Amino acid sequence: MLSGRSVAGQVFVLHLVIVLLLVVAAVVALVLQVRRDSTQEARNRSLAVAETFANSPGIVEALGSPDPTAVLQPHAEAVRERADVDFVVVLNTDGIRYTHPRPDRIGKQFVGTIEPALAGEQVVEEIDGTIGELVQAVVPVEDADGTVVGLVSAGITTEHVGGAAENQLPLVLGAAAVALALATGGAALVSRRLLRQTHGLGPHEMTRMYEHHDAVLHAVREGVVIVDGDGTLMLANDEAHRLLGLPEDGEGRHVLDIGLDPGTAELLSSGRVATDEVHLVGDRLLAVNQRPTDRAGGPPGSVATVRDSTELRALSGRAEAARERLNMLYDAGVGIGTSLDVTRTAEELAELAVPRFADFVTVDLFEPVLAGGHPDAATVLRRTAMTGIRKDAPLYPVNETIRFIGSSPQGRSLATGRALLEPRLSDAPGWRAQDLERSGQVVDYGIHSLITVPLRAGALVLGVVSFWRSEKPEPFDAEERALAEELVARAAVSIDNARRYTREHSMAVTLQRSLLPRTLPEQTALEIAYRYLPAQAGVGGDWFDVLPLSGARVALVVGDVVGHGLHAAATMGRLRTAVHNFSALDLPPDELLALLDEMVARIDQDEAQEEHSAPVTGATCLYAVYDPVSRHCAVARAGHPPPALVRPDGGVEFPDVPAGPPLGLGGLPFETAGLELPEGSRLVLYTDGLVEDRRHDIDEGLELLREALSRAGDSPEDTCRVVLESRRPGRAGDDIALLVARTRALAADRIAQWPVPADPAAVGEVRAAVARKLAEWRLDELAFTTELILSELVTNAIRHGGAPIRVRVLHDRNLICEVYDGSSTSPHLRYATMTDEGGRGLFLVAQLAERWGTRYLPTGKVIWAEQPLPGP
């Protein structure tokens, strides 16, 4: 309050200054009055004393005596003391003193004015005399005939006069202090109350707040009425005047006397609490809310707010419609395009708009769009989706092919690329010309209004959407046409995305089907079953293969390229082709994976140079070679899950195959693990989609695979079925490739082998032994060619190879001849000239055998040749 910043503080300071000024003025006035009164008293007293002494008996005689001082001095001092004056002086007519309080001044000239006294008049004056500043009176002493014979002067000094005033000053100041304290206390009480009422605000803030409150009070679109405790209208804003029809001079009058309707006047005068109480005032329905103002210590009375519910209903209706449209657009953004399927996306659009926007919705797309192709205006449209409030509407059914004529709303929308509104179908001849019979049925059914919107995706027009109204009597308007355009625009993006996905998916599926094996090659070493399940998101890069090798062996390969789509499928095809080519070299699994890893690294380098190309990331592979003669299986893997092995007794295990790095990383060698597989064992190869997903990690997936394999039947087909049924209740997010191979062993009676000494004479013995074995196998038709092939191969081994030398003949689907020697020198096929003595052996072998080649071993090589068996 003392800061002076608030209104209360400023009022207090102003009061305090005024009181101080009044007190100071009073003190000054009182002091001046006291001094004036004291001076007047001094004048009166000095004059009275002088006149009394001048008129005292014997004064004239004393003046005429020889020694006037001796006679008059004692009397003058006695009078001075009794009259409380400072001096009584008797003078002669020349102004010489006869008496004085100070004897040394007697006989000296009087200080003052004596001329009027010599003329018989009285003189009162304030002078600076011998004893200081004083008030003195001079009166004449007259004899009997009126002659002035002397003068008498009496006086009081100013110091004596001021002393009287100063004696009264403490009392005056004390009274002033009491008055100041009382005034200050009263001002403080008034200012404190004003402080509470103004909440400490300053004049500028009070003015600004009042202006703002006044502006807000009259600017709000809600009437405000303030009534005091007696029912007198204190304040009403402009909106209250408008809604209640208040007179201009209504403020200050009782609410019952200002012309309000009785119900509203009674409510305002009663001051009772009311919440959204509706009153009819003229043609308006007013919602009144009223609360008392004295709840928090305020003044008695009430404040009421008045709203026009008629206008609010109209506004709320428009707001509700706008909110519904926004909700519909939001639902369109999240509800249309949930799948990459063209038909389903069209159905989602139709389902969203019925019945919130239209009673029936039809979506017609060009037929190429449904297959993922580009729309062609020359082709017909197919009704892709239709949804309505009833099922019996006489509109074209789903899957019906339609060709809209140019005068129809759909035809004009397709031609112009703009939405069209037909508010009254019965008056639209162009629409009726499309199909007179069906259009008549539509109108008779009650459908009366139509909006057609083309499905535009950039420059492409994919089809047309039609919105039909029947239940609501009002026709579609321009605002609803704009909403329809917005809905269709959002749906068109999703339909175009689905169309593009369908095209890419079809291309990827076609590519993948062309790259995966369509049939398995014929071989007797393994009984094989397989499954390939694409991912829900589309084709991926999982693949498998079965590759017959020399010596009745079979290679099994399973690989995985991370990702989906064309790139993954194309990469998978490149890897599968590479494995085919590398397997022809009859390499061990670890060496084949090393070549494959080097090839992937080169592919990554080439792709890195292309700005828009993607490297081969996350490619894995498992390669296994099974030999039915020895029942030995060599396995190596590059970042791939380990194989599963089901023993003939039903036991399931995951062999410890060293895990190499994924393809393309390089830096670490691959290792081959050797497995001895009893006949009837099942070797299970798979990709990670079988054992790993979002719900299961790989350890849990392997355990689930173990349980499924333990209860599966003996056949590979049954094993595939049980594994997939137990692991995949539905479609997942990754591809699955599953390959199950049950081992077979080549019977001992179909294997023949002989050691061959390093002697050319041994060739004949080999031919004889082979002839006998072929006769035993009833393959006499092959005896001549087999003897010739073995003769050439054994002769080459004796001449150019090294010990030891062995010959092995296998009776499988083909007749296989193998010659082993300890040398790693590779023979080469060449064409001999007419003059060459040799060089025709391998040429003859290549001509006689269906296939031939060389297989390297850790301690030598094998040259083999295959001949087809004769028919039955």
Your description of this structure?
This protein has 872 residues and is of the alpha+beta class. It contains 22 helices and 31 strands. The strands form six sheets. Strands 12-11-10-15-14-13 form a six-stranded antiparallel sheet, with helices on both faces. A hairpin with a 5-residue loop joins β21 (644-646) and β22. α9 packs antiparallel against α10 (342-353), α9 (309-335) runs parallel beside α15 (478-515) and α21 packs antiparallel against α22. The longest helix has 48 residues, at 7-54. The model is unreliable at 833-837 (pLDDT under 50).
Strand-helix topology:
Layout: H1 7-54, H2 59-64, H3 68-83, E1 87-91, H4 115-118, E2 123-129, E3 132-142, E4 148-157, H5 158-198, H6 203-219, E5 223-228, E6 233-236, H7 238-244, H8 262-270, E7 274-281, E8 284-292, E9 301-308, H9 309-335, H10 342-353, E10 360-366, H11 367-370, E11 381-388, E12 401-402, H12 409-416, E13 420-422, H13 429-432, H14 436-445, E14 449-457, E15 460-469, H15 478-515, E16 526-533, E17 543-548, E18 554-560, H16 566-583, H17 589-608, E19 620-627, E20 632-638, E21 644-646, E22 652-653, E23 659-660, E24 673-676, E25 682-686, H18 698-710, H19 716-727, E26 736-743, E27 751-756, H20 762-776, H21 783-800, E28 805-811, E29 814-821, H22 841-848, E30 851-857, E31 860-868
Parallel strand pairs: 20-23
Antiparallel strand pairs: 1-4, 2-3, 3-4, 5-6, 5-9, 7-8, 8-9, 10-11, 10-15, 11-12, 13-14, 14-15, 16-26, 17-18, 18-19, 19-20, 20-24, 21-22, 21-25, 25-26, 27-28, 28-29, 29-31, 30-31
